[in-house]
Specification:
With 325 residues, this protein is an alpha/beta fold. It has helices at 2-23, 36-49, 57-72, 140-159, 194-206, 232-251, 269-275, 311-322, and strands spanning 76-85, 91-101, 111-117, 167-172, 212-219, 228-230, 258-262, 281-285. The chain has a 6-stranded mixed β-sheet with strand order 1-2-4-3-5-8, with helices on both faces. Strands 6-7 form a two-stranded parallel ribbon. Helix 6 (232-251) crosses helix 8. The protein is globular.
Length: 325
């Protein structure tokens, strides 16, 4: 009798469990449209040009291709040209490529800025052997990955009937031509990120009718083991937006990559967008606290190739950025 009663009791509990499970509400994560396969193909295309070193044929070919891709996605494309002094004090020609999406929206509505640099470093100055430091960096991750994610985002924006919030995608030039290690003399921080310095300076001077709510810069966003900590300048200038983006990453299941750990300040394109243009801007960048440089072991070497690109990382970053648009 005790046994039968016990089994009956278990049966009642099981039945109640079924009722509870049937009535339990499950919240499915609404994933933004993004194709890592497409982004990966965009990286392969850039790599096919060769290193996109400023003043090279590959750099020019890539710039023309980027303009064509943005136009194919329905963007109004602007080519910003100018000069900035390089590490030797010589004038460096700059070509920033800007794609405007949602221009049919109300002009006064604040826009969102998305940026990445499309140039690659002229020197592999992190190579252990001195003779290898004069090669160009291939730039699969450092350059091509951020551009590829933004090209796929451009493609997705082009598929929408309309945009409630206008978006500008900017491919910055000459981010990675800062003073090389091989040459003596004090390194100057302002020899990096020349394209974003030019863009931010022109924006601040002109005080245009286009206003930005905030911005996101993507840099080195393709590695299999990529982790994106809370970069310090982003926290300083745009903490509310940074926290909003990282919360979205958590909801989408990408919290392992979008770490709550805080990193040192990084002089990237976002710094000048914050400091000169006054636009709150967040840097999504792979930073490895375990390495002396803070970056992956293949950073600024000949090993920055397709072996260091992961579709799952591209998917994670793409979904997080798309969730903000």
């Amino acid at each position: 009798m005790r046994k039968n009663l016990f089994l009956g009791f278990l049966g009642v509990l099981g039945f109640l469990g079924v009722l509870v499970s049937c009535n339990k509400k499950t919240t499915a994560v609404d994933r933004p449209a993004f194709s890592a396969d497409s982004a990966y193909a965009y990286i392969e295309k850039q790599m096919a040009f060769g290193p996109r070193v400023p003043n090279s044929v590959a750099h020019t070919q890539c710039a023309v291709w980027l303009i064509e891709q943005l136009r194919a996605c329905g963007a109004e494309v602007e080519l910003q040209k100018g000069f900035m002094p390089d590490y030797r004090g010589n004038n460096q020609q700059i070509y920033n490529i800007i794609g405007h999406f949602g221009t049919q929206a109300v002009v006064a509505r604040p826009r969102i800025l998305l940026g990445a640099h499309y140039d690659t470093r002229p020197w592999c100055d992190e190579e252990p052997d001195y003779e290898n430091r004069f090669y160009n960096v291939p730039g699969a991750n450092d350059g091509a990955s951020g551009v590829a994610v933004l090209l796929e985002i451009a493609r997705q924006l082009g598929l929408r009937d309309s945009l409630s919030t206008p978006v500008d995608i900017i491919f910055f030039d000459c981010e990675d031509s800062g003073s090389p290690k091989m040459y003596t003399g004090a390194e100057r921080e302002d020899t990096w990120c020349l394209g974003s310095q030019l863009w931010a300076t022109n924006y601040a001077k002109k005080q245009p009718t286009i206003h930005y709510q905030y911005g996101m810069v993507l840099d080195m966003v393709g590695a299999p083991d990529a982790v994106f900590p809370l970069e310090m300048y982003s926290t300083q200038y745009a903490e509310n937006y940074q926290q909003k983006i990282w919360r979205s990453a958590q909801k989408l299941g990408h919290g392992a990559k979008f770490s709550s750990e805080r990193s040192y300040p990084i002089t990237d394109d976002h710094y000048y967008i914050n400091e000169i243009a006054g636009i709150p801007c967040v840097d999504i960048i792979h930073y490895d606290m375990r390495n002396a440089t803070g970056f992956p072991f293949w950073w600024h070497t000949r090993q920055d190739n397709m072996d260091n690109i992961s579709k799952s990382t591209l998917q994670a970053v793409g979904e997080v950025v798309m969730s903000q648009l």
